[in-house]
Amino acid sequence: MSSKAGAFLREAVQQDGPALFAVFHSAIHQVCSRDYTPAQCAAWAPATLDAPDWHSRILALQPLVIDVAGEVVAFADVQHDGLIDCFYVHGQLQGRGYGGMLLRALLEKASGMKLSSVYGEISLTAQPFFLRHGFAVEAVQRVHCRGQWFDNARMRRQLD
User: Fold this and answer.
1) CA angle, 84 as apex, 76 and 91 as ends, to 5°?
2) How many CB atoms lie within 10 A of CB 107?
3) Domains of the chain, earliest start first
């Protein structure tokens, strides 16, 4: 797969579970905390999530990961209906091009799956990134997770 300055894309493996959680947790608590309250971030990415269940659920999505020197720095998936369920870049590694690299790989994968579009429920924090990459807001929505309400948007991008 493609690479960017020592980074390469690969499919997630079972051993990535803890690293995937670390990327997810850091993205929420270090980046999304700009747009969501501490209570919302704690509900979205609690430190006490059941690790084996979380790892199993995420790995079942068959995410792609960006690996830099053996460390997972980002991950994302695209499902058979075009849903991008997860898309996270480590909180300390934002703005280095990993998100763009990951999105290009997902779009290529989606194209190979013969999908006409991809979509996701995109956080307030990630919406500008997805807008810059050709996604459009289909609906503004409010979702519930572990006792907290979150504003986000359902966004979609048509594929060529």
Assistant:
1) 40
2) 19
3) 3-114 (3.40.630.30)
